[in-house]
Amino acid sequence: MYICILNYIVIPMKRFFLLHLLLCVTVILLGQSTAKLPLIGISGTHATGGDTQVNSSYIESVLRAGGVPVVFPINDNPEVIKKMILSVDALIMTGGEDIDPLKNYNEEPIPGLGEINPERDAFDIALIKLALDQNIPILCICRGHQLLNVACGGTLYQDLPSQIQSSGLLKHRQQAPGWYGTHRVELTPNSVLAKILGTTSVVSNSFHHQAVKDVAPNLVVTGRTGNGVVEAMEMKGNPRVFSVQFHPEIPTSRGMDDFFPIFTYLVELASYKRP
Ligand code: MN
Questions:
Q1: pLDDT tens by residue, 219-262
Q2: 142 an active-site residue?
């Protein structure tokens, strides 16, 4: 009787133990594999009253680098924006519209200023400030590069061609394919970008007419064109926050390797936050 009872109990216990062990191992392995897929928030935009949109090149670059892209739609709810930032392991601030000079750096608009999106300005600046507060890695691209400067107290050229003598200016709005580099950018040796790319001179694409003017006190310029336009920056003492005026996501999404390390670096940083 006892033996029967013991047998009855012991066998299921063994099975239960083995099943439990198998389950634990599976959970641990799954946990490890998903931990290598950090969430990368990508700031979205919208036309007035239109759909949320993000150029697919940002999404494809994050996927190629091993991250999980999460698009953040514009909104003005502080709790929602905070939850967005707390949910991700890194942030990409994307390109887009001009930045309102009056609201953001107290300068009257000049005729060369392009389309502005006040709702997006407010949303993007909130994202950047929260991500800085939370010490989340941030890659800022084009408009994002300019907004990082503005969010930290810097100013912009509203329109390079009308604010800088044309004889000293390069063509910053290229009419070549997006993946194609058209001007040189000289990088500061030992800057995060020079280390990531393994060089101090790159040829980048260029799609902008605004540019960083007065650099915010907590940022340092790490890349310029020959005529002095600021093409890259990083945060003083924090290489987890860095920016480029050009568009590395376009060649990267086409499978080109020139600027791919920018995205693998970001995903690597993001993986550390949630090991
Ligand atoms: Mn440029």
A1: 999 999 998 999 999 999 999 999 999 999 999 999 999 999 99
A2: yes
Distance CA 196, CA 203 (A): 15
Query: Rounded to 10 degrees, what is the CA torsion of 241, 246, 251, 253?
Result: 50
**Of 213, 208, 19, 248, the residue nearest 97 (C-alpha):** 208
Q: Find the 246 Cα to ligand 1 centroid distance in Å.
A: 6
Is the CATH number of domain 65-103+115-273 3.40.50.880? yes
Task: Tell me, yes or no, if 140 is annotated catalytic.
Answer: no
pLDDT, tens digit, 9 for 90 and up, residues 110-162 = 999 999 999 999 999 999 999 999 999 999 999 999 999 999 999 999 999 99
Amino acid identity, position 37? L
Would you kindly state where each structural domain of the chain is located, as residue ranges?
Answer: 65-103+115-273
**From 142, 172, 209, 234, the catalytic residue:** 142
Rg of the Cα atoms in the chain: 23
